[in-house]
Amino acid sequence: MKHLTNRFLLFILTASFSLGCADLDEKPVGLLAPESLFRTSKDVETAIFGAYGWIATERLYGRQFVSALMLRSDMVDIGDRGTPAERQQVNDFNMDDNNNMVNQFWPTWYQVISAANAAISGGQQLGLPENEINPLLAEARFVRAFAYFNLVQVFGDVPYIDYFISNPEAVKAISRTPAATVYGSIISDLEFAKQWLPEKQPSEVRSRASKGTAASYLASVHLTLGDYAKAYAEAKYVIDNKDKFGYALEADFQTLFVAPQAPNMKEHIFDVDFLGLKNGEGGANDDIMAPMTGVRGGDAPRSGWSVLVPSMNVFNTWDARDYRKEVSFDDSLLIGGKLVPYTEFPNTKRPHIAKYARFAGTANSEGRYSDQNYAAMRYAEVLLIAAEASVEVNGPNAEALTYINEIRTRARNWAGKQTTFPANVTTGLSKAALIDLIMEERRIELAFEYKRWFDIKRRNLGETVFVGAKSLEPHTSFNPARDYLMPIPRVELQVNPNLGPQNPGY
């Protein structure tokens, strides 16, 4: 999807009614009600595009939010320690409630929600037949669920707003909603979306939600909540209908990380679409992940800032026979016209993440303003959700092994050459051992794709992966009573004390 139309309209909608305190302290230029803005279903669609547009900003998928997820995991460490302290604090588990990364992405998620709520409210008052308006309402409700799913996993209890705010002052009285209630609302939105969204969007674009997208996220939400039977049922629904939805694994793993990707890439179930060399106000369309992960001092267009760099343990413990390691890392680079190994990198002498910097497509000399389509959900993850949930419900079984082995079969295709690694998983593992294997398969398959922290959190792995003897990235400061949640921004609590109490430990 390449939609930047009517951005001015959506800027007014989302900026005026954001939960962020900066917006609350400013006098709104005018209050715009849905009945004055939404005259046709096309206006509703425009609002939805605006909500998608806020996801593709520097503050969310362009840098801040996804960088925080990467740093919080055991797969990505700080490279250049000259980077701003806010990033080091997130990485080192010593952040406070004034962390600037959080200060930026918290209100932006609510801008996404505000735009979705505007679309829903505007669409409902049009009085159109269900079959005409409900698919658009379903798309807006998917976007709202997507935003809240990210918020509730990071912060726990959060303010839940599912209506169009016509009076910004009223926001100051809003309190936080229990996480369980938020999850219930997320599931309700996704079930409505699954019912009413089309099987495919026009031109099969994957940056707009479809029926399969909603079902995939239902599977992920139920997995997060430990409702494995429902997670399995939703993932199995997607797998059984993969041909109808147009889903499959790409033959070559590298294809997933070469920009520009096809807008209807068959493995993508939902992606966040950036436009090469375009940007707008509020960090719109500003993708900075290539320079954040790229090598400082490399020759253009492969230079970067060496900020998000895996530890040596992550690289050294990854079997070199795995093609996914080759795709995921840059362990050599042209510097001064000479190909040098990572031991000669001028800043951080470690292998760097290659998934975003290697083929950034149309971008500036550092890879910024790329035209990447970042996969927020891909078919490989659905297979792994099905495998994990199936084992949790039924114990080790052939079906679960089939899903894992489908992914491993693709991994054996080394750029068109068939190899023997990784071998298929065979029968004989205990339930606990097979769950551990699936979690490791997720860590490798989805490496650096913003999933690992959520896996650590939902499986309560923090003390194992940060403090345990086999930690890939040791952090003895990790505190499970505090660090599974990030703090509510201090400035938000100052504007609205009803958001208290602060999360424990901050």
UniProtKB/TrEMBL annotation:
<dbReference type="Pfam" id="PF14322">
    <property type="entry name" value="SusD-like_3"/>
</dbReference>
<keyword id="KW-0472">Membrane</keyword>
<dbReference type="InterPro" id="IPR012944">
    <property type="entry name" value="SusD_RagB_dom"/>
</dbReference>
<dbReference type="Pfam" id="PF07980">
    <property type="entry name" value="SusD_RagB"/>
</dbReference>
<feature type="domain" description="SusD-like N-terminal">
    <location>
        <begin position="89"/>
        <end position="223"/>
    </location>
</feature>
<keyword id="KW-0732">Signal</keyword>
<feature type="domain" description="RagB/SusD">
    <location>
        <begin position="347"/>
        <end position="506"/>
    </location>
</feature>
<dbReference type="InterPro" id="IPR011990">
    <property type="entry name" value="TPR-like_helical_dom_sf"/>
</dbReference>
<keyword id="KW-0998">Cell outer membrane</keyword>
<comment type="similarity">
    <text>Belongs to the SusD family.</text>
</comment>
<dbReference type="InterPro" id="IPR033985">
    <property type="entry name" value="SusD-like_N"/>
</dbReference>
<dbReference type="GO" id="GO:0009279">
    <property type="term" value="C:cell outer membrane"/>
</dbReference>
<protein>
    <submittedName>
        <fullName>Starch-binding associating with outer membrane</fullName>
    </submittedName>
</protein>
